[in-house]
Amino acid sequence: MAGNNSRILLGHGSGGSLTHELIDNLFVKHFNNPELDKQTDAALLKIPHKQLAFTTDAFVVDPIFFPGGDIGKLAICGTVNDIAVSGAKPLYLSAAFIIEEGFPMEDLERIVISMAEEAKKAGVSIVTGDTKVVNKDKCDKVFITTTGIGALEEKYVNISEGNEIRPGDKILINGSIGDHGMAIMSARNELKLSAPLLSDCASLNGLIANITKASDKVHFMRDATRGGLATVISELSTNRSYGINIDEEQLLIDEAVRGMCELLGFDPMYVANEGKVVVVVAGEDAEIVLKAMQKHEFGEDSRIIGEFVGDHPGKAWLNTIIGGNRIIDMLAGEQLPRIC
Amino acid sequence: MAGNNSRILLGHGSGGSLTHELIDNLFVKHFNNPELDKQTDAALLKIPHKQLAFTTDAFVVDPIFFPGGDIGKLAICGTVNDIAVSGAKPLYLSAAFIIEEGFPMEDLERIVISMAEEAKKAGVSIVTGDTKVVNKDKCDKVFITTTGIGALEEKYVNISEGNEIRPGDKILINGSIGDHGMAIMSARNELKLSAPLLSDCASLNGLIANITKASDKVHFMRDATRGGLATVISELSTNRSYGINIDEEQLLIDEAVRGMCELLGFDPMYVANEGKVVVVVAGEDAEIVLKAMQKHEFGEDSRIIGEFVGDHPGKAWLNTIIGGNRIIDMLAGEQLPRIC
Questions:
Q1: Virtual torsion, Cα A145, A81, B125, B299, nearest 10 deg
Q2: Phi then psi for B88, rounded to 5 degrees?
Q3: More exposed terminus of chain B, fewer Cβ within 10 Å: N or C?
Q4: What's the gap in Å between the CA of B131 and the closest CA on chain A?
Q5: What pLDDT does residue B156 have?
Q6: Can you tell me the distance from the alpha carbon of A18 to that of B231, in angstroms, rounded to the nearest whole number?
Q7: What is the ipTM metric for this complex?
Q8: Under-70 pLDDT residues of chain B
Q9: A94-111 confidence digits (pLDDT tens)
Q10: Among the partner residues B10, B48, B95, nearest to A50 by beta-carbon distance
Q11: Is A134's CB within 8 Å of B60's CB?
């Protein structure tokens, strides 16, 4: 590891020899790719594509280690997914660390190894980075900002804004909702649960490649992170000329997640996911896409959860199990701070 | 501004309607460009160039407002400069904010306006971003991570590693050293100085374009930030087959910076700059490049400060005003934490 230091010192963020040691013995060692090896201020990349997707996310999750993942894995998955849902192929990532003085070097290495493993799984390289260290109590352990570049094919149709959506389109999701948020809550409160609660944190670019290969009538994709499924659905209906019906019966919610939500007074539809993508596809291709999703390890529990309708334009309705319906709106504030 | 809230709430980082309000009324309003307006998770960019430069930096400077700039201006300049010194033209930036709950909205707007102004000056667009809010005392006011993409011409020669450097090459810098670090120190300690001490924080891509236009024998460029001029010089000599001589008499140090360094026990060669670029150019083109630099507003005080020599390989010597010489080495630790 980085010299004889078992904890992060202010000097590790100085730009001097301690910084160089940390870069060599930790980041370059584990992220291990030719661009990063050069250790220049900017990575030089050959990208033949003329259209790129570009996205950034800051990760401040608390706790930094949780069942199913950690802040490092999350930082890779989150940025990979934001690129993938835009229809692009994720290629390169940057990683900027803000670390609290005194943070255990062992924990940092565990996080860096987790990032390296997830990047390898997702097929992306972490090619450039930065490390800043702040005095004790001036940040909470470690924050990581990842930024990603993805390549778009020439024939690419913009599916990020949902402009192609029309009544009759179906809404799919690749499995259960609320797992990430409740896994974080259980870890934060050190709850003793009979069934362990795992975050769904995963890089979805493989699954998404299956989806876009199966149909050219995919009209929208979005990963349902902060604000949960409800926030994506609400955004998709607001100021649109059509309405949305979501079928509550089709929503898959893990029993432990449901129980914890009831206990804490949360609605699972608003709880964060980190491995769930909402897909809108033309009605005639819905079954084809569903089958393609179900073949992927992160899509086995995929399902059709709703559709776009000509009725109640601008509103999303949840058709409840007991037979009524209620409007799916966006939350004003924060259910769960520092969920990602 | 963002609704009726005069301070940042946890809800502003929730992904819900408060977040949307903040994005609309602050970021989209001031950063103002078609890519950001779409508010998709990833910005979609058309970049015809096949080679790109990609860089990231986290900014944690304390205090966030200082004479000559603020954390927002710094976040733009720092990333623009890292791209420009690689020989690329900076095009697009992302910005990720980590904000402490309770941070004044007024201060955030001031920072965002400062970023927008500097981006405009530098000719770059802030096309994507993220906002996270952490509970009070879990970060120090605001941290900003900017990541940039720059375009490299096809005929581009890699000047980031200095592989073309040979004895006889001259070393130039575009003015005085140590200004940024000492401006931060004076602001931090609220020192009452007779002459005001300003950070040199500036986007250098215009100056750098002048340099690369003036000569095709530029062999290296690097902005001398954390660790100061000495760290760049030390990196340029370590493990190389040549030596470096720096002429102390040629180093321009502002009187107030010199005084403050003496008072605090700092060596100005190790103090951070945020608007200074170290340029290595073949000896025969040194005067041409010097004149090109001096014509630019950020290069008026440019000078030749040293050269590469066949002697003392692997070592950089400072030839001092009093006639001796001493080795320029890298500092192990931290002179000034949170300088950028």
A1: 40
A2: -95, 160
A3: N
A4: 7
A5: 81
A6: 12
A7: 0.95
A8: 1-4, 191, 193-195, 334
A9: 999 999 999 999 999 999
A10: B48
A11: yes
- List chain B domain ranges: 10-156, 170-327
pLDDT tens-digit series, residues A188-210: 887 666 667 999 999 999 999 99
- Work out the angle between the directed axes of helices A71-85 and A205-214 (0-180°, nearest 10): 20
Q: Which residues pair with A286 in a beta bridge?
A: none
Q: Do B333 and A160 touch (CB under 8 A)?
A: no
Share of chain A above pLDDT 90, in %: 83
Say what the pLDDT of residue A14 is: 85
Separation of alpha carbons A230 and A181, rounded Å? 14
| Contact yes or no for A45 and B51 at CB 8 A | yes
CATH code given to domain A170-327: 3.90.650.10
Return residues 251-290 of B near A (CB < 8 Å).
Answer: none
3-state secondary structure chain B: CCCCCCECCHHHHCCCHHHHHHHHHHHHHHHCCHHHHCCCCCEEEECCCCEEEEEEEEECCCCCEECCEEHHHHHHHHHHHHHHHCCCEEEEEEEEEEEECCCEHHHHHHHHHHHHHHHHHHCCEEEEEEEEEECCCCECCEEEEEEEEEEECCCCCCCCCCCCCCCCCEEEECCCCCHHHHHHHHHHCCCCCCCCCCCCCCCCHHHHHHHHHHCCCEEEEEECCCCHHHHHHHHHHCCCCCEEEEEHHHCCCCHHHHHHHHHHCCCHHHCCCCCCEEEEECHHHHHHHHHHHHCCCCCCCCEEEEEEECCCCCCEEEECCCCCEEECCCCCCCCCCCCC
The structure's pTM equals: 0.96
CB of B83 within 8 Å of any CB in chain A? yes
Taking the Cβ of residue B51 and every Cβ of chain A, the question of whether any pair is shorter than 8 Å is answered with yes
Q: Give the tens place of pLDDT for each residue, A32-75.
A: 998 888 888 899 999 988 899 999 999 999 999 999 999 999 99
Domain B10-156 sits in CATH 3.30.1330.10: yes
Calpha distance B200→B96 (Å, rounded): 24
Which of 130-159 (B) contact A at CB < 8 A? 130-135, 137-140, 143, 145, 147-150, 152, 158
| Closest CA in chain B for residue A226 | B15
Is B170-327 the same fold as B10-156? no
Q: Chain A contacts of B93, Cβ < 8 Å?
A: none
| Nearest alpha-carbon partner for A243 in A303, A302, A175, A171 | A171
pLDDT > 50? residue A327: yes
Query: What are the chain A neighbours of B97 within 8 Å (beta carbons)?
Result: 58
- Cβ of residue B229 closer than 8 Å to a chain A Cβ: no
What is the pairing mode between strands B125-134 and B89-100?
parallel
Q: Give the A window 162-221 contacts with B, CB below 8 Å.
A: none
Residue that has been written with the tokens 């070592």 in this structure: B315
Minimum-distance CB partner of A86 among B42, B225, B337? B42
Residue of B nearest to A8 (CA): B333
Interface mutation target, options A9, A31, A44, chain B, most CBs of B under 10 Å: A44
d(CA B23, CA B33): 13
Residues of B in contact with A92 (CB under 8 A): 54
CB atoms A147 and B143 under 8 Å: no
